[in-house]
Amino acid sequence: MSGRGERRKGGSGRIATALILFTSLAVYVALAGKAKAQDADLVAHEWGTFTSIAGNAGTAVQWFPWAVPSDLPKFVEHFQSSSFKANLSGTIRMETPVLYFYSPREARVSVHVSFSKGLITEWYPHVTRYTPSGNARTVAFNEREADGSVTWDSIMLRPTSESSLVHEKEESRYYAARATASTPVLVSSPTGQQQEKFLFYRGVSSESSPVTARMLENGSVHFENRSGGPLARLFLFERRGDVAGFRTVTNLRETATLEMPTLKNSVADASEAILFVLMEQGLYPDEARAMLETWKDSWFEEGTRLLYVVPTSFVNRVLPLSISPAPREITRVFVGRLELVSMRTRTAIEEALAKGDEATLAKYNRFLEPMLQILLPRESEPLKAQLIRLRLEQPHVPVLAQAQIP
Among residues 231, 199, 178, 70, which one has the least CA distance to residue 123? Predict the structure, then answer.
């Protein structure tokens, strides 16, 4: 009996030892797999913008810009066609995100990014696949529609690659993003290999803006942070002609109210302040300068707007990004832009409509149509309301010419 018991005991011990060895092996395999899925030498930095316009209630409204010439090179690829986006309405227009990589050696990575309640409409270099793959309607998105996405498989990072970047004769804000020390990326496409200093994409979404801004009767602006995280910096900026002004809020968690800025600064002052914030958020100096150079003519154009750092938690929720193998560092810096129809903007637009001042109206370019839609319910004077309606009915025909049409 004792011999049988000892054999049972010995068998149990061997089983226990085998289980321990099996468990240890499983842990080792899991850790090895995890280590293999990471690249300790790889760094990824991204910057981009979320652009919206605040309606009379303060929330971002659905809008689409009147047709304007594309500011992108012709080699950039489009969802369905280059004219598709012009008729696409949304609350957020995601503009020029660029994703940089830094690697001391050749490496191969894959990238997937999706846009909540939206569609990715442009990209470069060539993507492996995108969704939705079928035809999409050029209308406002709604919550029932699937998120759009793009995927780049097997991107080659070549730190010693000689520069062979395509550059067209026409000027474009696109090229400013190349002025960094990032590692060149190489992608295979049906027309051959494409090389760039970054991955580029744009899109439109019906997501709610992370910030609301409501104009008060006394001319002040009331902000509400709905992002779920603190706003590191928020600028209330205004420009009229050659003069500008801005006020700053730091670490905004819930709400704030600011008076309109005094127009005593220059655009250069605002540029310097924004540049400091971009570097403070983790961009390399050349990346921050590239972002500012890309967007300074738009951020600091005529009008009133909020410019703020979008919390990373909001960016990751609305624009989830996955990179394989995982970099040891991923930095994402997005600037939110919320255009406002302030009292000065309202006065400027109404006077320009009355005088047929097309030069002034052109300063509001792609924002003019949604601004007129916002102004119409505010207007109590019949003549001014009629001028707004005329322009909305025929957006590309000057108002004075419309008045002469029989």
Answer: 199
Residue 63: burial class (beta carbons within 10 Å; 0-12, 13-18, 19+): buried
pTM for this predicted structure:
0.86
Q: What is the DSSP string of 177-243?
A: GG-S-PPPEEEEETTEEEEESSEEEEEEE-PPPSEEEEE-TTS-EEEEE-SSS-EEEEEEEEEETTE
The total number of residues shown for the chain amounts to 406
- Number of Cβ atoms within 10 Å of the Cβ of 196: 20
Contact yes or no for 375/386 (Cβ under 8 A): no
CB 246, CB 270: distance < 8 Å = yes
**Tens digit of pLDDT per residue, the chain (406 long)?**
444 444 444 455 554 444 444 444 443 334 444 445 788 999 999 999 999 999 999 999 999 876 566 789 999 999 987 777 777 889 999 998 999 999 999 999 999 999 999 999 999 999 999 999 766 655 445 544 568 999 999 899 999 877 689 999 999 999 999 999 999 999 999 989 999 999 999 999 999 999 999 999 999 999 999 999 999 999 999 999 999 999 999 999 999 999 999 999 999 999 999 999 999 999 999 999 999 999 999 999 999 999 999 999 999 999 999 999 999 999 999 999 999 999 999 999 999 999 999 999 999 988 999 999 999 999 999 999 999 999 998 776 665 554 444 3
Q: Are 119 and 78 in contact (CB under 8 A)?
A: no
What is the C-alpha separation between 95 and 97, in angstroms, rounded? 6
Long-range contacts of 293-297 (CB under 8 A, 24+ apart): 293/176, 293/179, 294/96, 294/173, 294/174, 294/176, 294/177, 295/49, 295/95, 295/96, 295/173, 295/335, 296/267, 296/271, 297/173
The candidate with the shortest Cα–Cα distance to 201, out of 123, 127, 130, 132, is 123
